[in-house]
UniProtKB/TrEMBL annotation:
<dbReference type="InterPro" id="IPR004960">
    <property type="entry name" value="LipA_acyltrans"/>
</dbReference>
<keyword id="KW-0472">Membrane</keyword>
<dbReference type="GO" id="GO:0009247">
    <property type="term" value="P:glycolipid biosynthetic process"/>
</dbReference>
<keyword id="KW-0808">Transferase</keyword>
<dbReference type="Pfam" id="PF03279">
    <property type="entry name" value="Lip_A_acyltrans"/>
</dbReference>
<keyword id="KW-0012">Acyltransferase</keyword>
<protein>
    <submittedName>
        <fullName>Lauroyl acyltransferase</fullName>
    </submittedName>
</protein>
<dbReference type="GO" id="GO:0005886">
    <property type="term" value="C:plasma membrane"/>
</dbReference>
<keyword id="KW-1003">Cell membrane</keyword>
<dbReference type="GO" id="GO:0016746">
    <property type="term" value="F:acyltransferase activity"/>
</dbReference>
<keyword id="KW-0997">Cell inner membrane</keyword>
Length: 290
């Protein structure tokens, strides 16, 4: 099965990007009508965000979200099988690279934070190719073990490394930051029990990891948010980089809220490319709501 999936991914990756994204758009639109539970969760989470002004606009945006999500899925074939050089060529715009250069000049470790927004796999590959030192991306291992092998074969190459979302992985990214290297973390993944705090996300309590803010306040670390925006009409991608806004104090609840506030602002910039179908408001059995 692993070899078959890799072969299919390799074939998909050879399809021109505009065509591949067109296929994704069609699949996503079909998914809107057939994936009932996913549509309901996406619609509900979008409603919580108050981004859509009315029901008509919300339905249109949900359809776009399904299309963009399907594109992201197909684009994994590129991220995991095509060369770094090819992936770099897909990025037509880069905004905010000066923040990277400033951190390098200051001899800081780089904490690169991205939510489930745009294509973070491709953006991560671009970053690992352009940075003058290794980049370690933290990830949550998939439930299908052989899929993890395909994923890591695509991510662990050139200057890129991965760290599982467990204690061993945390030690790995801390070590990378202390060595003045770069790490990537997704701050809107729901953490395990005891690994987060309740903080509002679009005015609703969401169990939020504390790891991102704990890494951000390490000495000699620069925390930057980034997003790999998908440009329209198959034109490629734009990389956006900006400093984390707000003051982190070391208080877990306060700092988790700062991280969520930043995520909200990025989602508002590119709402159709955010994974609203993700169960961000998942309840924790042994952790009561505030």
């Amino acid at each position: 099965m692993q070899k078959l999936v890799y072969f299919v991914f390799s074939l998909l990756a050879l399809i021109p990007l505009p065509v591949l994204q067109g296929i994704g758009s069609i699949l996503g639109r079909l998914g809107f009508y057939f994936a009932t539970s996913e549509r309901e969760r996406t619609t509900k989470n979008l409603h919580f965000s108050k981004i859509a002004a009315n029901d008509q606009q919300a339905e249109k945006l949900v359809k776009s979200i399904f299309a963009e999500t399907a594109k992201s899925g197909l684009e994994l074939s590129i991220a995991w099988t095509r060369s770094s050089k090819h992936i770099v060529s897909l990025f037509k715009e880069v905004h905010g690279w000066e923040h990277i250069e400033e951190a390098i000049a200051n001899k800081h470790g780089l904490l690169l934070i991205t939510p489930h927004l745009g294509n973070y796999d491709l953006a991560g590959r671009y970053l690992s190719e352009k940075l003058p030192f290794p980049l370690t991306a933290m990830y949550r291992p998939p439930k299908i073990s052989w899929l993890e092998s395909i994923m890591n074969n695509g991510r662990v190459r050139d200057n890129g490394y991965t760290a599982p979302a467990n204690m061993q992985g945390v030690k790995q990214v801390v070590r990378a930051l202390k060595n003045k290297e770069a790490t990537i973390i997704l701050p809107d993944q729901v953490p395990g029990e005891g690994e987060g705090v309740w903080a509002n996300f679009f005015d609703r309590p969401a169990y939020t990891m504390t790891l991102a803010s704990r890494l951000a306040i390490m000495p000699n670390v620069t925390a930057l948010f980034f997003c790999g925006e998908r440009l329209p009409y198959g034109r490629g991608f734009a990389l956006h980089i900006a400093p984390l806004t707000g003051t982190l104090t070391g208080n877990r609840e306060h700092d988790a809220q700062i991280i969520n506030n930043n995520v909200e602002e990025w989602v508002k910039r590119f709402p159709s490319q955010y994974l609203f179908g993700y169960n961000r408001y998942k309840k924790r059995k042994n952790i009561p709501l505030p």
